[in-house]
Design a protein that fits this description.
heterodimer, A: 480 residues, mainly alpha, B: 44 residues, rod-shaped
Chain lengths: 480, 44
């Protein structure tokens, strides 16, 4: 890293903080703070959706899979998300905008009561804690600038939290516009330079085994199913919901999500190809940093700093948004409904700011827990989908079945089964180095069945459906 | 499934790179134009 590279990174951080502070003066109510007053138009929605939803978990996780397995990363691990986002854009967004919601757990509260709201808030909180992005910043700063991992983690969390605490969603979205351009543009430029030096994309097929080009790769069918099923999280993604509620109209959010799908698909494809390029280079990279290492080796001075700023932007645009959501989950969704007295907007904003800071601290503490980025991502989306998907779809599409018992039973069963399954696999199983995941092998008769930690959703989702049906059949009709 | 042909791989890679390099600046300019019109007419 040269002095110019450092200057670019510092200028980027200073610019982001200044922009956040300037925006913070416009906050007058909790609605302003949490959903930008419901006034967001298509271009700013595109910027904030694309940059928020894609963080280092995609940059490192997807390139880790493509470095090991090839194109399966795009076709199986990523492509199902576009379909889920399309469904959310066309069907869910329209129904959701009929109500005056501010958060995902608001839906649970409105249709099922406070209990379901609380379970949904816990699931949303677990999902939204930006552990992976914070971990990613620590890795990036360690690999590129030699900053010790723990300090990098702390630095990334503090900077991202600072402007979010000040200006809420508007500051977050305004900074996202710059971060969005940086993260996409620098990845595109890096791809041009790296692939150009390698002699073009066609050379990959000379250097890699044929399995790298098979869209279904060599994963077992169960894991492919889990990868595809984890895309269901896009249907209950808290950051999507927050932006659906923040949009000025249904047309604005629909257009933003459709444009977003094109940009996400392009981003993913380039990440996948660069992961394969790293595999083709013949260097023995640590799989999850393969893309980063390859690109930083190939880029000239100046562009390295720009790319690093892009990588930091990828992480920070995710950290800020999800810290806001997890802070809101505690203050707005968990504390406010159970408080004895009504809380003023001013107090609620103040409390949410503190909870954003607390969420940052919790995410920093957890940043070391998971072994691979992909498995952590799947755990978090499993908890969210298992606890939230069934009650939300029940409320929006089968409102006559939406009793308090159905909502609470379904969300609690989904949450409990997914957490218990993961706990069991971690207590009784072992970490398989080849598969790079935790596996618990159980013996039934003479057969041994390997239970991957990723299979949790295959149990938890049916449990949530069954509990919803039982609650709808035997529970009282009206919400408390 | 059949492996992806190298030409197909190359085609979609350069399309994706084009989308990443040209798309975000275009959206950003769109955003700036909206900000400018909002400053001219803040009640909108």
């Amino acid at each position: 890293m040269s002095a110019a590279d450092f200057a670019i990174v510092i200028a980027y951080i200073a610019g982001i903080l200044g922009l956040g502070a300037a925006v913070s003066r416009r906050i007058a109510s909790f609605r302003d703070y949490f959903v930008a007053g419901g006034r967001m138009t298509t271009p700013i929605l595109v910027c904030t959706l694309v940059s928020t939803y894609y963080g280092l978990d995609v940059l490192f996780g997807a390139s880790e899979v493509s470095y090991r397995e090839g194109l399966v990363s795009w076709f199986v691990y990523l492509r199902p998300y576009y379909l889920a986002i399309l469904i959310a854009a066309i069907f869910l967004a329209r129904r959701l905008r009929r109500h005056d919601f501010l958060s995902l757990p608001d839906i649970g509260g409105h249709f099922y009561g406070r209990g379901t709201r609380a379970v949904m808030a816990v699931a949303s909180f677990v999902y939204s804690l930006p552990i992976l992005a914070i971990m990613g910043i620590g890795i990036v700063l360690d690999v590129t600038l030699g900053i010790p991992f723990a300090w990098g983690v702390l630095l990334g969390a503090v900077i991202s939290a600072a402007y979010t605490i000040l200006g809420g969603l508007l500051a977050d979205a305004m900074t996202d516009t710059v971060q969005f351009v940086l993260m996409c543009f620098t990845l595109g430029i890096a791809a041009i330079l790296v692939l150009g030096r390698m002699g073009g994309v066609e050379t990959l097929s000379d250097k890699l085994e044929p399995r790298f080009f098979d869209p279904l790769g060599s994963y077992p069918p169960g894991v492919l199913l889990v990868f595809a099923a984890s895309a269901l999280s896009a249907l209950v993604e808290p950051a999507f919901y927050q932006r659906i509620f923040a949009a000025v109209s249904y047309r604005a959010i629909l257009a933003a999500l459709l444009i977003g799908i094109v940009l996400w698909a392009a981003f993913d494809w380039v990440v996948t190809i660069l992961g394969m390029a790293a595999a083709a280079s013949g260097e023995a990279y640590e799989p999850r940093y393969a893309l980063l290492s390859l690109v930083l080796e190939e880029l000239p001075a100046g562009l390295k700093g720009l790319f690093l700023a892009g990588v930091l932007a990828t992480a920070m645009s995710t950290i800020d948004s999800y810290l806001l959501i997890s802070g809101g989950n505690i203050a707005y969704d968990l504390y406010r409904p159970f408080a004895r007295r009504p809380i003023s907007d001013e107090k609620l904003i103040g409390l949410t700011r503190w909870m954003v800071a607390l969420s940052g601290l919790v995410a920093v503490v957890f940043a070391l827990f998971f072994r691979t980025i992909v498995s952590a991502w799947i755990f978090m989306s499993t908890v969210l989908v298992a606890a939230v998907l069934v009650p939300v779809l029940g409320a929006l599409y089968l409102p006559k079945t939406a009793s308090a018992a159905a909502g609470l039973a379904s969300s609690a069963a989904g949450l409990a089964v997914s957490v218990l399954y993961y706990a069991a696999v971690h207590v009784f199983g072992t970490f398989d180095q080849d598969l790079s995941t935790q596996v618990w092998t159980i013996a039934i008769g003479e057969r041994s069945i390997p239970l991957w930690q990723e299979y949790a959703l295959l149990l938890a989702l049916p449990a949530s459906v069954a509990a919803y049906i039982l609650g709808a059949m035997f529970g009282r009709r009206s919400a408390p | 499934m059949n492996p992806i042909h190298p030409d197909t791989l190359s085609f979609w890679t350069w399309v994706s790179v084009g989308v990443l390099v040209a798309g975000p600046p275009a959206v950003f300019v769109w955003f700036l134009r909206e900000v400018r019109s909002w400053f001219r007419n803040p009640d909108r």
